[in-house]
């Protein structure tokens, strides 16, 4: 599903003395099967922005299109049910939303609400458990006796059980250990590659931006500074500095070497990209390839 | 330097029926003023260990001695006076309606007079750079600000030991760096002993020594650089692989001979520059 924002603005408590503008004049497009990362400091509007995608918050001005659905300030909630089925939202610390007695019932809750029979929903739940890397023995256990990382997988399985076409992830790896983070990011990438899910990822992890995203949107004080490929965004050290965003470690390291006179064809963003280019410059190695 | 913490043959089971102990015959010491990192994957027992040191677990086997006092049900309050703990989620430890009330809480518990309390709270908030937030509600602060307030609460009661239980894991990268710098400064000024339980490689790098806990056992004790030299295995220890180790692996995969051991980014940069200039 493609997503388009056209001049979207959002003000909390609009029309009251408490009105607080949170987004202004946001325009960008994510193609079908795209992978967009959204970065920016705490309070820059990232979470407000993603809540527009399934109209948990409706724009105060402008228009959002998600495939055939259009969201404007006038859109009523009655029109939104089909949209919400297609846009899966994984909020920060989604495990805090688990509530059922068993893991299977928790995952089956959403699909059953949207019209599947109990039997179908239970079967779907078992399939989703497998997708997130937990075996069937978990089905009858309580979600509350799992580790934090396992609880998060169950919560994500509950979102996937709706079979969304767009997956919106708000810092999905926050608080996990490095192994848990790696497994989680691999899972999302697999869903993106194998099932063609469009992914919107809010993150502070620049390594993940470099490794997975096609494009990256940079938010600052409710405005979209830029939306371009990670290569284009991280490539300009002066702009990166003035916009106060972090760069992937590999890029930072490459820029240090650049100061010493090592020239890059293209700024490397990952350790592998960096090594690829270093080999070209390596005495007695680059020449052999030519 | 004297040992401020001495743990000998500590074992603990959450339930008598548990086959595997949560802590299994752990012995180690911490010197006064040292920064010790406890690492291990989720569920390895590192938080359990920290709670045992703070007298929060009724362990039956082994001994814990803090500042020369052996931890027993009778001495537990005396031992806790010496230790301040900060947890992962600051929201779980706020009690005051305002920032200053919250910082005052520990002092109230110690029956400090109001005349003494007011300047101590103010000084503690100054110390962490949160003085302008004194009247604010803790819930409305950012994650990094909340952890600063939690640190102010610790500074106010002036313990000898600070235990950070994944205290930076919910912060964004900038918040994490600020918090570490603040802990480093407080440690020097107040001669604090710091124990940090962490998955963060930068936080582990701040330590003088790293203990690795796995399945309730102490499996390794070394300097950060020795631990970081283990490359991919670090993931199993609950840490990330340092960037320089990833780069070395990538170069090795492409047929380049790389130096052994752990390099800081500066050392790595120097080595690469020399290798590239060596034509």
UniProtKB/TrEMBL annotation, chain A:
E.C. designation(s): 7.-.-.-
GO cellular component labels: ATP-binding cassette (ABC) transporter complex
Single GO MF descriptor: ATPase-coupled transmembrane transporter activity
Keyword Cell cycle: no
Gene3D superfamilies: P-loop containing nucleotide triphosphate hydrolases (3.40.50.300)
Highest taxon of source: Bacteria
UniProt KW keywords: ATP-binding, Cell membrane, Membrane, Nucleotide-binding, Translocase, Transport
CDD domains tied to this protein: ABC_cobalt_CbiO_domain1 (cd03225)
Membrane topology: Peripheral membrane protein
Transport in keyword set: yes
Compartment annotation: Cell membrane
UniProt record similarity statement: Belongs to the ABC transporter superfamily. Energy-coupling factor EcfA family.
Subunit structure, as described in the record: Forms a stable energy-coupling factor (ECF) transporter complex composed of 2 membrane-embedded substrate-binding proteins (S component), 2 ATP-binding proteins (A component) and 2 transmembrane proteins (T component).
Protein function: ATP-binding (A) component of a common energy-coupling factor (ECF) ABC-transporter complex.
Name of the protein: Energy-coupling factor transporter ATP-binding protein EcfA2
Organism name: Levilactobacillus paucivorans
From TrEMBL, chain B:
Organism: Levilactobacillus paucivorans
Protein's name according to its UniProt entry: Cobalt transporter ATP-binding subunit
Keyword ATP-binding: yes
Pfam families: ABC_tran
ABC transporter domain location: 5-240
Top-rank taxon: Bacteria
Keyword line: ATP-binding, Cell membrane, Membrane, Nucleotide-binding, Translocase, Transport
Family under the similarity heading: Belongs to the ABC transporter superfamily.
Keyword Transcription regulation tagged: no
CC terms in the record's Gene Ontology section: ATP-binding cassette (ABC) transporter complex
Subcellular location: Cell membrane
InterPro entries membership: AAA+_ATPase, ABC_transporter-like_ATP-bd, ABC_transporter-like_CS, ABC_transpr_CbiO/EcfA_su, ECF_ABC_transporter_ATP-bd, EcfA_1, P-loop_NTPase
Record Gene3D superfamilies: P-loop containing nucleotide triphosphate hydrolases
GO terms for MF: ATP binding; ATP hydrolysis activity; ATPase-coupled transmembrane transporter activity
Membrane topology of the entry: Peripheral membrane protein
């Amino acid at each position: 599903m493609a997503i388009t924002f056209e001049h979207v603005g959002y003000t909390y408590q609009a029309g009251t003395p408490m009105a607080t503008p949170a987004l202004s004049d946001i325009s960008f497009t994510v193609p079908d099967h795209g992978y967009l990362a959204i970065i920016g400091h705490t309070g820059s509007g990232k979470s407000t922005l993603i809540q527009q995608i399934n109209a948990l918050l409706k724009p105060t001005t402008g228009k959002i299109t998600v495939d055939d659905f259009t969201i404007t300030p006038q859109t009523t909630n009655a029109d939104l049910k089909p949209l919400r089925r297609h846009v899966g939202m994984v909020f920060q610390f989604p495990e805090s939303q688990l509530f059922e007695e068993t893991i299977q019932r928790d995952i089956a809750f959403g699909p059953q609400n949207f019209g599947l029979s109990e039997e179908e929903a239970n079967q779907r739940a078992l399939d989703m458990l497998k997708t997130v890397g937990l075996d069937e023995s978990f089905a009858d256990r309580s979600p509350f006796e799992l580790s934090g990382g396992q609880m998060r997988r169950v919560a994500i399985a509950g979102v996937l059980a709706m079979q969304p076409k767009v997956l919106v992830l708000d810092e999905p790896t926050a608080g996990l250990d490095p192994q848990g983070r790696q497994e989680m990011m691999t899972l999302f990438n697999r869903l993106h590659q194998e099932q063609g899910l469009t992914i919107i990822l809010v993150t502070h992890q620049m390594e993940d931006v470099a490794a997975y995203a096609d494009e990256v949107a940079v938010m600052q004080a409710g405005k979209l500074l830029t939306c371009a490929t990670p290569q284009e965004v991280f490539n300009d050290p002066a702009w990166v500095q003035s916009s106060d965003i972090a760069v992937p470690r590999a890029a930072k390291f490459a820029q240090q070497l650049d100061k010493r006179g090592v020239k890059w064809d293209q700024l490397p963003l990952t350790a592998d990209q960096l090594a690829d280019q270093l080999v070209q410059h390596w005495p007695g190695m680059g020449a052999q390839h030519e | 330097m004297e040992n401020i913490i001495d743990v000998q043959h500590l074992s603990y089971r959450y339930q008598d029926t548990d086959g595997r102990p949560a802590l299994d015959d752990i012995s180690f010491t911490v010197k006064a003023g040292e920064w010790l990192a406890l690492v291990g994957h989720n569920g390895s027992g590192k938080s359990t260990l920290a709670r045992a040191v703070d007298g929060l677990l009724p362990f039956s086997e082994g001994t814990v001695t803090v500042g020369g006092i052996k931890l027993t049900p009778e001495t537990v309050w005396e031992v806790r006076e010496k230790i301040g703990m900060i947890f992962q989620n600051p929201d779980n430890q706020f009690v005051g309606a305002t920032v200053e009330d919250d910082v005052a809480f520990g002092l109230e518990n110690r029956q400090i007079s109001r005349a003494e309390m007011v300047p101590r709270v103010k000084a503690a908030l100054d110390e962490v750079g949160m003085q302008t937030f004194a009247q604010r509600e803790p819930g409305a602060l950012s994650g990094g600000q909340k952890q600063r307030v939690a640190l102010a609460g610790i500074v106010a009661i002036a313990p000898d030991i600070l235990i950070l239980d994944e205290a930076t894991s919910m912060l964004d990268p900038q918040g994490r760096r600020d918090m570490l710098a603040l802990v480093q400064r407080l440690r020097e000024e107040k001669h604090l002993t710091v124990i940090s339980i962490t998955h963060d490689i930068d936080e582990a790098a701040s330590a003088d020594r790293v203990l690795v806990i796995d399945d309730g056992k102490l499996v390794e004790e070394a300097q950060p650089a020795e631990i970081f030299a283990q490359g991919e295995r670090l993931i199993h220890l609950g840490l990330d692989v340092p960037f320089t180790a990833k780069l070395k692996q990538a170069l090795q995969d492409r047929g380049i001979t790389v130096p052994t051991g752990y390099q800081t980014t500066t050392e790595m940069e120097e080595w690469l520059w020399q290798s590239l200039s060596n034509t």
